[in-house]
Design a protein that fits this description.
single chain, Arc Repressor Mutant, 78 residues, elongated
Amino acid sequence: MSRLTITLSDERYLALKEAAARQRKSIREIIESSLDFYGIKSKKTASHYVAMARKNSALSEQDALNLAVQETRVSRRG
């Protein structure tokens, strides 16, 4: 497992520490959960998810592309 050093404001560090205590988790677990929530994955993991989705989808490649474009436009309109 890799190690990482980051610099946080005292206020942010205290908030992180309090959140970990409230949830009975370590700071590492809080950060890991946050990364998962925001969809931060390695390229290998993301490629695996895409391959699984494609395998299980009933859409053709063109239909999937059309749907993705449509959903992106809706999302950008807010």
